[in-house]
Amino acid sequence: MSRSTRFLPWFLACVVITAPASPGRLQSEDPAIRSVLDWYKAFEGSAGIRAQYNGYVGERFDRVYALLSASLHTRMPNAVFEEAYAEVANMKLLQAHLVQADQSAGTAEVFVEEERTIVGRTATNAQVPAVAWYTGTLRLERNAAGVWMIDSIGTTPEDIISMKYGGHSPWRSDAQEVAQVAAGAYRKRECPVSTSPPASPNSNAIDWTVTCADDGSRYVIHEVRLQSGEWHVLKVSRY
Q1: What would the pLDDT profile of 112-156 be if each residue is shown by its tens digit?
Q2: Domains of the chain (ranges plus CATH)?
Q3: Nearest-angstrom CA–CA distance, 72 and 158
Q4: Burial (Cβ within 10 Å: 0-12, 13-18, ≥19) of residue 15
C-alpha cells in the first residue's frame, strides 16, 4: 500500500495475526438473522412496478412489505416502498451478518449484501436488464409478539467501479491492510509489519488479531469481502 493511495497522513506499527475464519456466512440460528432471511425470501416471485421486461415478471411486494415494522409502515407507506424497489425484477441475499443485538431494548442491526436484477431505462426509455449489488444495514425491532421486524433499511448501491477500474484506495482489497487501518494503524509512524497468511485465503469472512506496537493495544477485527472485492469491517473489538 503506497503512501499516495492510503490517503492517511500518519503511521502506526501493527502486528497482524489471523484467527480462524468465522463459521458460516449466514448465522441462521439467530432470530434477527432468521427474520432477515424470511424478508429476502418474501421477494421471490415478486417484481417492481417498472420491472416488467417483454411481458409479466412477478407479483407486487405485498408479502415483503408485510414484514416491515408498524413504525416503518408509518414512515414508509406502501406506495413509497413500491417506488423504492420499482426497477427490481429479482432480489437475492448474498450474505448477512449480525452486527449487534440488544435483547433488553429489542433492537438489532444486520449487515447485508444483496444482488438485484433490475430493469433500467435509457434516455430514450429503452429497457436495459442489469445486475447490481447493494450493501448496508437493516435495523430490526422486536414487536410485542416477540417477532423481529425490519424497522429501517439502509442499503445503497455497491461501488464496483472506483477501486477495480479507477485505482482508488486499492488497499481496500487487502484484508490485512483493512484490518490495520481499522485498528488505527498508520497514525504516527511507519514500521515493518510481521504477519502470517490467512487461515483460509479464499474465505469471505475473516477475524484478525491486531496488536499495535506503540502501546501494546490489541484488537479483533471482523471483516467480510464484498462482491466488488473490497473488504468491509463489521466489528472492531479492543481487549
Answers
A1: 999 999 998 888 878 899 999 999 999 999 999 999 999 999 999
A2: 3-24+167-238 (no CATH), 31-157 (3.10.450)
A3: 24
A4: middle
Reported pTM: 0.82
Task: Dig out the grid coordinates for 20 from the structure.
Answer: 480462524
Place of cell 409478539: 145
Distance CA 77, CA 88 (A): 18
Joined together, the cell numbers standing for residue 228 give: 466488488
Q: Which three cell numbers stand for residue 227?
A: 462482491
Terminal-to-terminal C-alpha distance of the chain: 27
Q: Are 18 and 208 within 8 A, CB to CB?
A: yes
Q: Phi, psi (5° rounding) for residue 33?
A: -65, -40
How far apart are alpha carbons 238 and 195 in whole angstroms? Answer: 19
Q: Which stretch of DSSP H or E encloses residue 164?
A: helix 162-165
Rg (CA), the chain: 21
Cell of 70: 408498524
Average pLDDT over residues 189-218: 63
Q: How far apart are CA 185 and CA 8, in angstroms?
A: 9
Encode 67-111 in three state secondary structure. CECHHHHHHCCHHHHHHHCCCEEEEEEEEEEEEEEECCCCEEEEE
Cell of 187: 497514525
- What is the number of alpha carbons within 13 Å of residue 1 lying toward its C-beta? 25
DSSP count for the chain of H helices, then E strands = 7, 8
Pick from 63, 25, 42: which is nearest to 224 by CA? 25
